[in-house]
Amino acid sequence: MSDELTIAVSKGRILNGFLPLLEKLGITPQEDPTTSRKLILETSRPDVRLVIIRASDIATYVEHGTAELGIAGKDILMEYEGDGLYEPLDLGIARCRMVLAGPENERPVSGRLRVATKYIRTTRAWFGDQGRQVEIIRLHGSMELAPVLGLAHRIVDLVDSGQTLRANGLVPIATIAEISSRLIVNKAAMKMKHGAIRPFITQLAGVVGA
Ligand code: ATP
Ligand code: MG
Question: Looking at the CA of 76, which ligand is closest?
Answer without folding.
Answer: 1
